[in-house]
């Protein structure tokens, strides 16, 4: 290839005119010159499994990386199914990148182990570092945040979400130098310690480009009003506690502060919110596209009043305390809604009065025909209701239904829930992610294998009758990338039926199924490019494979497996 043409290609790639990961990969396959141009131009990499490749391979392939997203533990670790100390340490990655890609600017970690020492190493090893996001990580404390605040002089983003962190104090906010002015995104909503408000206020007041601010529940309404006065330009806001005895003057000041936030499109937090102060939000709601109320135990009438002012809403997260009446109000007021997530306020079933049912789901679907993403926790459901939702919202791409008590049938007909998910996969032809629950026979999986042609991610729990169900999925679903299964009767025949498919998938998880160690050995022998890991539970049958994790890797078996993880 002519050197000038090659240079133009590198510039086009570097300017971000090729955006999707698939397109980047396609570019690299055209010819050797395009491969080399893409190699040198790639600035961001996404690694969905930290053991699928080594940091040495990544930096050798892409020497000019500026941004990396890295995921560690399997998703079922969120449900305590992955033992502690399983792995996923970020330190080896940091050491290699410090040597080979010292100009790294952005790091996004999910379900990784991150120590305070790793955070300090990160802070001092990358002089151009600008953005850190930690989601569902563990191993660190607020001491590590102090190191980031102290040493990262160019930081524009610090996003700390849902981590298992040793939350010592909120003093880390005072470690940002008084000359520091670059921060644009700060999220510490999931921390519990009392924030150093004076330090936070100084930080917000001197960082004039703040776009996202999400504080924890220690921040009072009066303090929130002060922060909004300093940063009326915010695009996203996560409030602290939304309950405090305010004087008439303080109430007016808070209302005025929210009214001045003309650009706000995302609102979250609202801990302990009550009807008393919700009206201060109404002027702001007009432009909201995302309303996250997953920390706010609002009743149906509270939600109804709020969404009546949200005509542009596209994403809504709520607790099931809003009940069916609240969802009906959403259907009546939010015709542009694309994403709905309903979380359980009482996951163990205690103290739940009504929650949400099929009635609210159906009512919402009539008014929100653009729905694409659904996560719905409930205690009862019917086949007819799900079929109606699918009919009303055929463009759904993500459908995650969790009936809280395992193995529940259609509560009206007492029939299995097979036809519900059959309706979803037949009607919603763009479906990419599916989580199933309830009483399900192998017929559900026959429907999935036959009709879910675009499905990439399937999660199954407490379902199925025999190996044939899993075989149907693996024989169909041509685009399947991730398969998660727990507490199902699938065994060796089911596992080994995927021999031809696993190398094109990202991972398979099976726990509390009927898989044996011999089947795992056989799979590893037949497919040496797959890593097959078994996590043993104490006291169980030696030949029983308690938790099986299968994933493709170009790095071979990992070298840091703890004693309870057997690798094949």
TrEMBL record:
Pathway: Protein modification; protein ubiquitination. It is found in: Nucleus. Residues 7-44 form the COI1 F-box domain. It holds the Pfam family Transp_inhibit. Its main location: nucleus. GO terms for cellular component: nucleus; SCF ubiquitin ligase complex. Residues 63-109 form the Transport inhibitor response domain. Transmembrane segments: none annotated. GO terms for biological process: auxin-activated signaling pathway; SCF-dependent proteasomal ubiquitin-dependent protein catabolic process. Keywords: Auxin signaling pathway, Nucleus, Ubl conjugation pathway. This is Protein TRANSPORT INHIBITOR RESPONSE 1. It comes from Prunus yedoensis var. nudiflora.
